[in-house]
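Example 3.2
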Amino acid sequence: MGVVDSATEFGRLIGPLRRAVLRTRHAESLPDLPEAQIELLRALQETGTTTPREVSARLRVAPSTVSNLVRTMAAAGLVLRTPSLTDLRNVYLSLSPTASDMLDRYDRVSTAALRDAMQRLTPKRRKALEASLPALADLIILLAEHPPSARTSAPDSRAKTRS
């Protein structure tokens, strides 16, 4: 078995880390929402009131995906849909008070769990983790700006599309 490079190792750690943080919501009896719904709620939390098209662009997903998410989440009382006063074809989306409270509660409990876990790290490890936060923020931006292309993820597809 070869040496695992840091990009591979980082990729392997992200999922379990995210799932461990998400499990903290059980302490507050919060619902187990799919990741796509959480991302939509976070986008609405950051933007306030916005349109489905803007959310689609922000999350880099198809408009139909946003439409399906909104339909499900509006029925669950998590997203509010407000028709435009000037164009009845348009709708504005915002967080419901229930969703806002749920995200606040989730943030409190997950922050407390992370803080507790970080305090149990050795001082050296904790400092290393804290020092890595700006680099992780930069990595998120770089990945969002340059998503993997078909060339990067599947080299064989390039040859097939040229023929």
